[in-house]
Amino acid sequence: MKPFPDHRKTCAVLLLLLIGFAFYAIIAAQGHARAVMGKESEAVLILDPGHGGADGGAVSEEGLCESGINLDIALRLRELCRLFGIRTLMTRESEELDYPPEADTIAKMKRWDTRERVRMINTCSHAILLSIHQNFYPSPQPRGPQLFYSDSLKAKTIAESMQNYMTENLCPGNRRLAVTIPSGVYVLEHAECPAILCECGFLSNREEAAALADESYRKKISVILLGAYLSAAEEQL
């Protein structure tokens, strides 16, 4: 009678093969990212998680706060960008903001924060701004991502490409189009670099709000945002 096979050895070999494949995939993807970025390789992707500190942003019916979702997606996206060799800068890295003493009201805190973000953005050369937000509407029906862009042909091109990619991979059938940012969005209006704002979903839509509360869905958004950014960069060449 033949002895039973040593499953430990078999598992070890399979594990090594999987690790090798994953390592190869990462190296190949990094090479593709560098090739895609081309002359844009010096670009810095500024990740701006909307709101934070005294400004929680929109709140879902279940009490889910926008600022924390924005930050979580941005932090995940930053880690993915590091893996692909994309330089990043965060306008905030936590829910807490270090306000100066003179910012002693919520209005003054918000005003200081937006001006501080613009100052940081405009001191960075070769920058592209991606501001991450969640949408809210009086009616519970609207859903799906939407991209907005600053008054820049490059921003328009990137936003339109990212909108197509996100619609296809996150919310097929979504008819929303990338449009010019409405007046009053201070950070995008005063950023000197091409600036894009992504409303990832609607907190006013119960189903989408429940998805945004799920860590795995936020991971999915960060992966799709990276893919959308690389796809947009590829179309720029």
The whole-angstrom Rg is: 20 Å
> Average pLDDT, to the nearest integer?
86
Number of helices: 7
DSSP helix fraction: 40-55%
Question: What separation lies between the terminal Cα atoms?
Answer: 64 Å
Q: How many strands, which pairing sense, and closed or not: the largest β-sheet?
A: 6 strands, mixed
| Secondary-structure element series | HEHEHEEHEHEHH
Describe the protein.
The chain is built from seven helices and six strands. The chain is an alpha/beta fold and 237 residues long. Strands 2-1-3-6-4-5 form a six-stranded mixed β-sheet, sandwiched between helices. The longest helix has 31 residues, at 7-37. It is globular and about 50 Å long.
Keywords summarizing the entry:
single chain; 237 residues; alpha/beta; six-stranded mixed β-sheet; 7 helices; 50% helix
